[in-house]
Specification:
heterotrimer; A alpha/beta; B alpha+beta; C alpha/beta; B: alpha+beta; Arc Repressor Mutant, subunit A; Glutaredoxin; 2 domains; four-stranded mixed sheet; 7 helices; elongated; C: alpha/beta; Rossmann fold; Ubiquitin-like (UB roll); de novo design (two linked rop proteins); 3 domains; four-stranded parallel sheet; 8 strands; about 40% helix; binds flavin mononucleotide; binds iron/sulfur cluster; binds FE2/S2 (inorganic) cluster
Chain lengths: ~900, ~150, ~425
Amino acid sequence: MTKVYVDNRPFEVRPDQCMLQACLTLGFDLPYFCWHPALGSVGACRQCAVKQYKDENDKKGRIVMSCMTPVAEGLRISIHDPEVVAFRAAIIEGLMESHPHDCPVCDEGGECHLQDMTVMTGHNYRRYRFNKRTFRNQDLGPFVNHEMNRCIQCYRCVRYYREYAGGRDLKEFSMRNQVYFGRYEDGTLENEFAGNLVEICPTGVFTDKTLKRHYTRKWDLQFAPSICVHCGLGCNTSPGERYGSLRRIVNRYHGELNGYFLCDRGRFSYEFVNSERRVRQPLLRQDNGLRPTSKAAVLDRLKSILAFGKVLGIGSPRASLEANFALRALVGAERFFAGTAPAEQRLTSLMLQILREGPARTPSLHEIELSDAVLILGEDVTQTAPRMALALRQSVRQQTFQIAEKLKIPLWLDHAVREAVQEEKGPLFIAAPYVTRLDDVARETYRAAPQEIARLGFAVAHALDGSAPEVAGLSEELRNLAGRVAQALRDAKRPLVVSGPSLNSESVIYAAANVASALCRAGKPAGLSFTTPECNSVGLNLMGARPLAEAMEAAQKGEVEALVILENDLYRRAPRQQVDALLKGAKHVIVLDSLLTPTASQAEIVLPAGTFAESDGTLVNNEGRAQRFFQVFVPQGDIRESWRWLREMMIAAGRREAAALETLDHVDEALAQALPALAAVTKAAPSASFREAGAKIPRAPHRYSGRTAMHANINVSEPKPPDDPDSPLSFSMEGYPDQPPSPLIPFFWSPAWNSIQAVNKFQEEIAGPLRGGDPGVRLIEPTPGSEANGAYRGAPPEAFSVREEERFFVPLYHIFGSEELSQQAPAVAELIPKPYIAIATEDAARLQLKEGDEAEVRLNGSTQRLAIRLREEMPKGLAGLPVGLPGVETVELPAWGKITRV
Amino acid sequence: MLSPEELREIESEFPHYPNKQAVCIDAMKIVQKHRGWVSDENLKDIAELLGMSVDELDGVATFYNLIFRKPVGRHVIMVCDSVSCWVMGYERLRKELKNRLGIQMGETTADGRFTLLPIVCLGACDRAPAMTVDEDLHLNVDPQKLDGVLEKYK
Amino acid sequence: MEKVLTKNIQPDLPYVDVKAYEATGGYQGLRKALGMTPAEVVEVVKQSNLRGRGGAGFPTGMKWSFVPMGADAPRPKYLVANADEMEPGTFKDRLLMEGDPHQLVEGMAVAAYAIQADVAYIFLRGEYLFSAERLRRAIAEAYENHYLGKNILGSGYSLEMYIHLSAGRYMCGEETGLLNALEGKRANPRTKPPYPQVSGLFGKPTIVQNVETLCNVPHIVKNGADWFKSLSYTQDGGTKIYGASGKVKRPGLWELPMGTTIREILEVHAGGMQDGVRFRGLLPGGASTDFLVEEHLDVKMDFTEVAKVGSRMGTGTMIILDNQTCPVGMVRNLEHFFAQESCGWCTPCWSGLNWAEKALTALEEGQGQPADLEHLSFICNLCAPGNTFCALAPGAVEPLQSALKYFREDFDRHIAEKRCPWSSQ
Ligand SMILES: Cc1cc2nc3c(=O)[nH]c(=O)nc-3n(C[C@H](O)[C@H](O)[C@H](O)COP(=O)(O)O)c2cc1C
Ligand code: SF4
Ligand code: FES
C-alpha cells in the first residue's frame, strides 16, 4: 500500500491505480465522465480535476486530472481547494453548453450520471446564451435509442464499443464541439454487447429502447437481485417492474462474473415475461381445447390423477433447483428425469466429472479476462455463452501489457497502452467448424469438423506432454498448428482452455480436458472453462436425474400413468416423433410453465408457473456457482413459483411431508439434506429471516411514487404491501435504508449517486468485489491432490472423411434465436435469423445451390425444407443446422444428412 | 468500384507504412484527386480494401477538412480566412467572390464550374490575401485581379 | 551577416538540384555525421543549443537523447519532419522546402542517423503541393546519389524516406496528433508520458521535429556547435527565419541572427508600417502567441527574451495589428480558427473556444454584453496550460487574454456603441 494525502489527511491506497480510482475507493465524491472503471483513463473530459502539491509547504499547487495521476508515495492532492472546485464547475458548464436541458422528457432522468455530476459540482444556471449545436438522430435497431443532442463528448461510448467490445460500426465523426457519435448510416448496432451503451453513456444519448415502450423512472421501479436465465453463465441482473409488468433489466455488478456488462440477450429478453403467450391461469383440457379453470378445480383434478402411482417427472435446466427438487420430491428420485437432450445430459455429466476430478480448475469470468493464452475448442462462445466472449476479448490484451510495462506505462492509462501496443494481440486460438465472432482477435483459427477439432486438442495435449494419447495419422499441418498452440499455452502464465457441449462431441470435451491436464502436469495453473447451455444445466445435472430416453421407453411400454413436465418444451429436446410418442404414451400430461409452449399445448393440465421475475430460486452456472434470484414482483392471479405448485400437488396427493415445505428456505434445507452435492445452496444468500437493523431490504427506491394511488382503480384504500415469506426483501420502499449484503442488492443507489455508477459505493474497492464478497457459492472445486494423478481421458477420434453424397451436419447457434425464452421478447425477435441451412460454398457449387435457394434436408429420419446460406469458410463436406431457431426442427446433431435442390 | 489507376496508386502507398489502415488518408485523397470528392460508394470500396469498417473510415474522413464527402464543382476555390489574410482584406475578397459567382461559401455554382470554400492559413501571409483554385496558389488577390484569375478555369 | 538556411534560396525560387546543393557544401554535414557515432552527433546538436523551431523551443539534442539506442531498442524507429505549418501567420517552412528541399532531406538524414531511425516521413501540409513536388524530386535525387536508401554512402546505415500529404487540420501539427494522422487515424493528441521518443509512431520510438529545426542540423554537424552559437545574438543558438505580415511596407521572411530585436525586424526588414496606418500591436510568432505592443519593440526575438515579457517567440513570424484594423475582429478571426480546429477531445477546448468565438462574434455584431468580457477572461483561465489535454487551447487563448489586457477599451467600445467601431456603416 502507498500513503497519499487528500486534503492533508493521510490514506493508504493501492499503488497500481490512478488517484481518481483511489479517491472513489476512499469514498470521496469526485466527479468524472470519460473515466470508467472498466475502461481506464484517457483524460478527455477534465472533470476529475484536483489540485496537486509538491510537498506540505506548497500552498499554491497545480490543477491536474486525478484520472491521469498515478498513486505515488507521499502524493498530496486536494479535492476541496476552491480553485479546483471552481474549475470543475466550469468544466461542467462547458459540457452542458449545448445540452438541451430536457431532463423531464429524457429517459435517463433520475438515473443520469450527468445529472448527478451537475448537482455534485453545483452547476445550476446556464450562462451560455448562444445557439446550441444540434444533431439528427439515428435508428440504431431494436435495442438502443439515440438522442445525440444530449451528448457531452466524453467518448465513453466509442471507447467501450470499439476498444472494449470490439464493435466496428460505431464511431465518432467530425470534430470540435460537433463530434457525432453514431454509425456511418442508420442501422442495427452489430455488436452483441451494444446494450451496455445504455449504462456506459453517462447521459441520455444511448438509452434502452425497449424500456421506452413502457417507460418508468428508475425511482418508480420495483427491483430484485436476479440472475439471467438466458444462458449458463449466470450473470447478475437487476430487473425492474411496475404495474405488474417487467420494464427492463440493468446490470447488477458482480466482481467475479459479469462485472459491469451484460450481453444483449441478457438485457433485452426480459419482455418474454410480459408476453401474450404467458399462461396466467390453470388450464384444463376440455372439449379438445385447453380452457382456463380455477385453482381449486385443477387441484381437484390433479388429486385424482396423482392418486395412481407411475407418475414420472421431467425436470428442466431452465427451472430453479428448488422447482426441480420439488418435482423430484413429488415423483420420487427414481422417477425424476432430466428434461434435456440425451447427448446434452451425457456431456454435462462428463464436464462436471472432469471439473470435479481436476486437475484443472474452472475459472470465473473475471479470471477468464485475466488469462493470457487461450484455446477454444468447438465453441462459438458469443452465441452460446455471450458474456464469456466479452471476457475472452479482454484476455488477448494480457500478454501485450508487457509492452506497456516495459515502457513504464501504467495499465490503467488506457490510450497510452493501446498506442504502445498497437495491433499486437496475445494468443487466442479458435477451433470451430465455422467463423466465430471472436475470430477477429484470434491469432489462428482452425475450421474443421468436430472430429478434427478433437484431434487438434489431443495433439496439443500430446505436444505438451508426450504421455498424453497420441493422434494417429496426424497431418503435418495439424501437427504444426498443435505445436504452436502448445507453445503459446506453455509460455503463458495463466493459460485457459474453453470448450463445451456445442458440437455434442465427447471427444472435443476429452481433448479440452487433456490439454488442461497436460498444462497442469507441466506446473501451469491452467483454467478449464466449459460453457453450459442453460441457466441451470449444471444444477439439474447435479441432482442426478435419469435420462429422458428412459422416460420415453417407459411411455412406450405403457408404464406411465402421468407425466409432470416442469418448465420445459420437450420439442426442443428431441425429434418431434419421439416427443409425440412420449406425450401420447402417458395417460395424463401435466405441464408447469410460464409460456404456452408446443409441449404445454399438448397437455391435459397446464399450471401457470412464475418466471424468474415472479419467483425465488437458485441456479447453478457453468462455473458451478449457486446463485439466488429473487422475485421482482407478485404476479396477479394464479401464477406462482413452480415449486409452490408442486408442493400443492404433493398436498393434493396426500403427501404429508409437503406441509413442511412452506417457504423457499424449507425447500432449500430439504434439498441440502437430500443432495449432498448441493448442500451449500443454503449459503447462496441470506435466508428469509435475515434482517438488517431489524428491517427487511426494500425492493423499491425510497422515492417510489404513487403507492397509495396506483391501485385506486381497484380499491381506494391502499393495500398492505404483499408479504414475502421467502426472502429478506420487502415489496416496498420501506426497510433498511443502507447497503444490504451483496446477494440482496436489488438496485444500486447511494446518496448523490442515482445512476448505475452508484455501484462505486458498494464495492470494497472500485472495480473489485462487492462489499462482503461477491454473491454466490461455488459448488465445484477440483479434488485436492489430483494434479499428480490426473489421468488423460478418452481417445482421439478417427479423422473426418468427406462423403460424396452426404454432408456432415453440425449444430449452429445464434445469440438471438437459439434460446427459447428470449425468442418471445419482441426486440430480440426482430433480430432472429430466418430458418436456413449453412453449407460450404465449395459444396454448394457442386450441388448447384445458390444463396437463398430452397433445399430439402434429410437428416436422421427427418425431412425439412430450408433456405440455403453459403458459408465461405466452412470446410468441405460440412453443413450446419441452426439449433432452436423458430422454424427449424429439432434433430440430433451432428449427423450425416442429405441436401437436395427443390 | 475503384478504378485500376486508383487501385494502383493506393497500393503503391502500402510499402510506406507497416499496416493498411495507415494508408487510408492517402487512399481517400487519391480517389478525390480522380473524382473530385469521395462518395459513399468510394468510401465503402476503400474501407474494404484497407480492412476497415466504413464507419471507421468515415470517422477519419470527417475529421479532416481536405476530404470532400459531398460533390464539388469542376474547380474548387479555397479562400484563406486566417488572420493575416483577414487583416489584408479577406472579407472584401470573399464578398467579391460570392457576388461574382452568385453563391455562398460552401456552395457550388449552378453550372458546376466553381465550388467556394474557406481554408485556413495557406502559408502565404506575406502576400495576402491568398487563395487557391484547384492546385494553383494565387497571391495578393485584389478584386481587380479576380477576373483574370477566374478566367483561367473553365 | 552570414546566411545559413537561406543561402541557396533565390527570390524567384528556382529549384536547387542536388548538384547545386552540393556545390555550396550540401551533404557535407551528412558525410561528416556518418563518420561520427550517433552519440557524437547527438552531442554536438546538444552543445549547439539548437531549440525547436516549431514553436515550443524544446532543446533538440536533449529530445534526441531520450530515444532508446543500442541493439535491443525497439525497431523500427522513426523520424518525422513536421511540415504541417498551419499556424496562421506562419510561412517559413514553405520557403525552406520550396527554396532548398535538399537541405531538409539532408537534415533529416543526419537526424535520423543520430537516433538510428529506419524510416523518415515528411508530414506535409496538404495544400503545399509545390513543396511536395520539389521534395519528391529532391528525395529521388538523394536516393540516386546514395544519400538515402540502403547503405547510405557505404556507411552501413540505411534510411527510407516518404512524404505523407496531410488531409488538413491544425491538430496534425501537434506532434502526437501528427502521429495519429500518420497512422491513418483522427488527429487527436496522445497521452504524454509516454513521450514519442519512447513510444511514438506505430508504438515505436519516434522523433518529430520542425522543418526549420531539421534544416539547421547539417550545418551544426558540419561547422560545429560553437560556430552555431556564434551566429546568435543571444543564448539560443543559430539564425532564425523571421517574418512579418499585415500592413507593413514589405511583408516577407528574413534569416537573421537569433535575438534580433522586434524593432529591427519590423522597421528595417519589413520597412515599417504602410503609409497612413499606425502600429498597434503584434503577435510575435503566429496566431497562438500573446500580443505585444509598442513598449515591447526592443525585445530580442528569441525563446527566452520574448517569454520574459509574457508572450512566446513561437514560430518567429509576426502578425502586425494596425490602427485601421479592429482588434476585437482580429481576435474573433483567431478564435474562429482555433474553435474550428479544436479536435473535440477535451472539454475546456471544444466548449470554451466555441463559447469564446460566439461571444466575440456577438461583440463584433453589436450584441455584446459586459458579462461576455468577464466570460472571455474566464475561458482564458479555463484553457490555461495543464487544464487541457494538449497545447492547442492554451495557445488559442494567448491572443485573447493579451488582447483583453492591451485593447480592453476597444472591447468596451463595442459594447457601449453596440457595434464594431471599425465597421463601415
Ligand atoms: C496545435 C499545435 C499545432 C502545431 N503545429 C505545428 C506545426 O504545424 N509545425 C511544427 O513544426 N510544429 C507544430 N507544433 C509544435 C509541435 O507539437 C512540436 O512541438 C514540434 O513539431 C516539435 O519540433 P521542434 O522541436 O523542432 O520545434 C504544433 C503544436 C500544437 C500544440
Ligand atoms: S486542447 Fe483538447 S480539444 Fe483542444 S485540440 Fe487539444 S486535446 Fe483537442
Ligand atoms: S475522468 Fe478524468 S479527465 Fe475525464
